[in-house]
Write a structure and sequence with these properties.
This protein has 251 residues and is mostly beta strands. The protein is 10% helix and 51% strand. Strands 2-3-4-6-5 form a 5-stranded mixed beta barrel. The N and C termini lie far apart (61 Å).
Length: 251
């Protein structure tokens, strides 16, 4: 028996984005995908009947991350039953990021995951054998200098996503924010160093979301979130883009 129930493969095509834009321009061109399996807490809905919750993903008994998730009403329509506390869910969706200042004046990034598909893990005796999952993939441009420290390599990636226009409900605006990417693995750090990654190079990053609880400068609880990368692949260099543009001009 499958460990998932609820949304079917057909649900991938059922997300209804009411927009006047052509279909091939509905989604930002860069990859932005999150896959999570975890436990539900703090479920509530807003006036539009969108569901908000925290999803906790455990790597082991001592390490876990808490993810803010919003399930739009048109996605929830395909989910049988209701979302409840302590349920174990499999969620695929998209990252949305927002920068803030913490109580000490340091910059941080909070993340919300907009769910595109939601599946409930079967509630049976084998449920505990299903490992939690915390996986993110993005294709993006490096927006800051790549910094190499003693035990860490890091940069910020340009994160693109669509957000509903508050004035025109049928329109979606493409939003750009910046997502911190941290590399701790020594082999990967050496590979990144040897590939001479630079600002404005396009990369594919795979890894997991890690966060820590803090308080922002307004007194509100936030979760500072980073991507801990386990794979970084160079897709395009800025020098190649410049050369291609120069060739077009010459022709």
């Amino acid at each position: 028996m499958s460990v998932f129930r609820g949304l079917t493969r057909h649900a991938v095509n059922s997300v209804r984005l009411m927009t006047t834009k052509p279909f091939n321009k509905q989604f930002p061109r860069n990859l932005n995908e999150v896959k999570l399996i975890g436990s539900v807490s703090n479920v509530h809905t807003n006036k539009n009947n969108d569901t908000f919750l925290y999803l906790s993903t455990y790597e082991n008994y001592k390490s876990y991350s808490i993810h803010k998730v919003v399930i739009p009403v048109f996605t929830l329509e395909k989910f049988p039953g209701s979302i409840e506390e302590k349920q174990k869910l499999f969620i695929t969706g998209q990252l949305r990021a927002k920068e803030f200042n913490d109580e000490n004046g340091k910059r941080g990034t909070s993340v919300q995951i907009v769910a595109h598909n939601v599946f409930q893990c079967e509630n049976n005796n084998d449920n505990n054998k299903l490992d939690d999952q915390n996986h993110v993939e993005i294709e993006s441009y490096i927006w800051t200098d790549v910094k190499h420290k003693e035990n860490l390599t890091h940069f910020h990636a340009d994160l693109r996503y669509l957000k509903k226009n508050r004035i025109n409900n049928g329109q979606f605006d493409e939003v750009n924010n910046f997502m911190p990417v941290m590399i701790y693995d020594e082999i990967l750090r050496k590979s990144v160093f040897d590939s001479s990654l630079n600002r404005l190079d396009k990369v594919r990053v795979e890894g997991s979301l890690k966060n820590s609880r803090c308080t922002d400068d307004t007194g509100k609880t936030q979760f500072k979130t980073i991507i801990v990368a386990n794979r970084v692949s160079k897709l395009l260099t800025i020098t190649k883009v410049i050369k291609e543009k120069e060739q077009i001009i010459l022709n």
